Amino acid sequence: MKLRILFYTAIEGELGSLSNAVRSVQREYGPLVEVLAYAKRDLTGPEKQAELLDTVPCCHLVILHLMGGPDSLPSFDRVTALAREQAIPLAVLPSAGDDARALLGLSNLSEEDYRLVRLYVGYGGEENLKNLLIWSINRYLKKFYPVPEPKPLPWEGLYYPGCQSEAQAAALLEEKLKEGKPVVGILFYQSYRVTGNTGFVDELINQIENQGGVALPVFLYATRNDELGSRGIAWVVENYFSRQGRPLVDVVVNTLMFAQTMATPTFSRVEEKDLYLRLGVPLVKAILSVASRSEWENSQQGLGPLDVVMSVALPEFDGDLITVPVATREELERDPLTGAAPIKYVPVAERMQKVASLALRWARLRRKPNREKKVAIILHNYPPRNDRIGNAFGLDTPASVHRLLVAMHKAGYLVEDLPPDGAALMEKVLSGLTNERGWLEPRELERRAAARVEKGAYREWFSAFPGISQEHLKRDWGPPPGEVFYYGDHLLVPGIFLGNVFLGVQPPRGFLEDPSKIYHSPDLSPPHHYLAYYRWLRDVFQADIVFHIGKHGSLEWLPGKGVGLSAACFPDLAINDLPHVYPYIVNNPGEGTQAKRRSHACIIDHLVPVMTRAGSYEELVEIEVLLKEYNEAKMMDASRLPSLHNLIWEKVALAHLDKDLKITREAAEKDWEDFLERLHSYLHEIKDTLIRDGLHILGQPPAGEALVEMLLALTRLPNGPVPSLREQVAGIKGFNYEALLSNPGYFDPDRGRTYGEMLDEIEHLARRLLEAFVNGGYTANEAPFIVQKLLGKQNEEICRVLEYAVNTLVPALAATKQELDNCLNALAGGFVPPGPSGAPTRGMADILPTGRNFYSVDPQAVPSRAAWQVGCSLADALLERYRQEKGTYPGSVGIVVWATSNMRTGGDDIAQALYLMGVRPVWDEKSGRIKGLAVIPLEELGRPRIDVTIRASGMFRDAFLNVIHLIDQAVEMVANLDEPEDLNFVAAHVRQEVAEKVAQGINPEQAREEALWRIFSDPPGCYGAGVSNLITARNWRDEKDLGEVYVTWGGYAYSRRSFGKDARPAFRQRLALVEATVKNEDTREIDMYDSDDFYSYHGGMVAAVKAIRGTLPLSFSGDSSDPARVRMRTLDEETKHIFRARVLNPRWIESMKRHGYKGAGDLSHLVEVAFGWDATAGVLEDWLYEALAHKYALDPSMQEWFKEVNPWALQNIVEHLLEAIERGMWQAAPEMNEALRELYLDIEGELEARTEWPLNK
């Protein structure tokens, strides 16, 4: 009789050892045993899973070695049930992180038999697996061959090629350490050593040593397991990489997957939490891709969803610096004996060389004296004009860079000729060569350049570029060195020197240098000059480290693979192996993550600007006063009502509030009291909106009144278990907080006040409570006393909020100084600790403090349960608003989906899309990850299933390919339902399109695949919507041009079967069906007038729909800044809301004026974005243009300020206002047109006078 064993493993590396063990047993004992081996990758389809099930009854023993619980075996329940039914011995075995006790319960072996099988397999290696087979022969064939007990192999230890023992490796490495070279620690799994899968480790060691370093490789079983005897990652790091409390290594190259410092449901130990912080050296992530070399090389995506989760997203939680694949998983020849195909990780030599070089550059930062280090600091500049140098959202870049330079000088860096402040620093930058070249003659450009790159030098660099990159560059820009920034046989380098610091301006991306390419080349390569600039930084200036300052530049958005870049990808070609540090706003995880994953950036997140209540101003205050007088007159002096009545309407009309409320006087008169209630509610909604108070300065915590404002904003919403301060104050005053918020205009006759006035009182009391601690010097222990004193009674919940504010938020905000500290830490080759990201004022204050290398979310947990609730509310609100406007349901909704907002919220947008279609996620109870989808029955849904067309950003495509597959699955599930077409718009549209395609002669299978496409994005490796580039270049005529570019850039289909298939006709067809569009905003820390991306993606969709359909869709902006109280406004309403609360608010304008050059540049950008919104979606009425002109351009004091701090900003504002008039977007009065033209000539003369023309000297 032959013993037949079914051996399934989710850990494919052990297959080679298993095959060798079977051969060894058969040689020694004859054909007594047969092993049928299956790996997880063998069971991807239903046929293979059926084969596995058919195999079970034929076996005498079933061994299932899992990794990640039962989900790691397809058909787990059926396999185990079948084995138990047939009384076949079954061993379900755990690996790291699995619940061993639970898996024992799923097995049917005795405890002793289970223990032996588990240890034979768990210890692993050829010898243990051989002994497992002999034990099995004895146990089930009644033999009595001698068999040793399971033999533990070393779980951790030093490794060096050719060494036969750890002692030998230790002695060799000890000698190498004496050489005084930079030391690179290497972490790799013990299983690779056990199975001999160490070729990639050997190559990494070789690369490190060839480049002048010492490699210190350590293998380990990452999880501490007392039963097995493994000590775990914390012990390994502390005992192999440290000596006497000091790091023995200068940097660690980590090849491990997942996060090592995150608790799992079955494993949580304190010692892991800060282990890398305690070690204190950079952690460089070298990726072992589960794809083969050919799959990775030929993939436009780079890394697939599994790699992104295991080797990118989760390691970011540890603070890893994400790099590139250094090895790929190659399947060896399938073993005819077991059916197994062993795998090995085979090094990608060139990528391995890059990672070794990057690691050594980080290591040398720890050893090189500060005074000798050369540092490049790059200021972003888009559009490439003088008003926008240092563009970084929410950050005063000049002041921040100045603070950084001062700190560097104090730390011993050679910083020379440093101006006294940020304003003077910018004057110095502007006196050198910048990207705005129109004012200067070629000789002056050359004179101002910081450096020049000889065309011969660049051609030599170019010749070393990968061939495919060379061809791409020549196709787009001609032979090297091209024409951009090429003067007098040189490529010029813009920037200035400050000792060993180069303060540079990021080179132009290229779209504005050749605007015609916007129409057809989303994959436009950067100009030759761009690559020459970065290569000059590395090879001529010899920078030791590069800083890019703030959100965001162009480097990380250059064409190439999405994640896991090759040498031919342009971000990799530019940044090369330079250590890269990137201060970045904490509320933008998506775009910051792009920099991490495509340019190996170490993020140092910075605080959002202080958030404050918008308040009332000017004509809004006047109307509020009149409303208050009117309500008082109703109770005390009715004779005043007629005059107040007329005065209120006059002021409303003068302020154009009748347009905001979409009401005429005739309609208002029909129910005057209702109109006043709506008016008061609207004014209060504006007043109560959070807006930014100026800009943040790196490393500078809010203090005094700014601290009070920030605490008010942070405690406005609940923070986890900590309740809302305002809501609790409302309760103690006897107010119904929900009622106050839902209708602030309601006049309560019993209290003689409106609900809005009660909310003002609540805000005032909350402020006083916080001021008592910030300004009064009270401690958290005195909270009960303060509450009693200010509110007249005790309240435990208010005390709880105040204690949270004082004990948690105040120290967290004070720790904002870590932003600067960790910049210096990175410069010194230290470890920047990881931290969460998000919008702190959205009930996420616990993400503070800033100054950390932020991470985002686990892609497999999107959407989260919390996001599902918000997404359903957003969907309901959208449909309710649409029905109010149109009286029916939309057949199809266009949704703009970005990575950033879904990383912040956990997937609100995804939940909204799923719920519109009537599908809900199914979550794993333990991990919170999505394990499937379920259709919501129509009876429960209570409405039709709405079709959706999603325009996803390129970053979303790269980060959430698994979510794209999830949505695609949902579309197919809904399309397959047998339901009436008027209740299932998805199925109706799919059926109609399939019929049309089949009638055109298209294969039915292909027709259905194409008809199911619902997710569209950029071509693989490309980013952006193109529309903003076109508008900035002024290279368009009407919405047809804008729509054409929108489709050209975004018409690529993504599904489970298609990755970036050119589907522009299908995208047009989907847009032709769109009746409503939406993009949701989840925080008031940023709004749709803050960036051209908003109008480029959403406004572009509106323009495209109009161009294709001939009519504007009904377009919405979802507001979930308070997740418990979502709102849905039309784009027109949201525009007016933002203009009233922020854009025209003197409080905000004055706060920006505090920041001089940068504040002026941001005002300039705002006008440009407003222009873009009107060009794409037609949302700016004439009075809004007039208000912008008066507030920003024609006000004499503003003109004086602009001319002093940033005259280019004023020029850009006036240019865009005049362009709006010229294009017929604004029907301006003749005198307005004339005033703006005169101002433009005036500022042009001002700028010409500022320019030092050599011919005029």
UniProtKB/TrEMBL annotation:
A GO biological process held by the record: chlorophyll biosynthetic process
A GO molecular function held by the record: cobaltochelatase activity
Signal sequence annotation: none
Domain CobN/magnesium chelatase: 120-1232
CDD domains in the cross-refs: CobN_like
Family classification: Belongs to the Mg-chelatase subunit H family.
Protein name: Cobaltochelatase CobN
Organism expressing this protein natively: Desulfofundulus thermosubterraneus DSM 16057
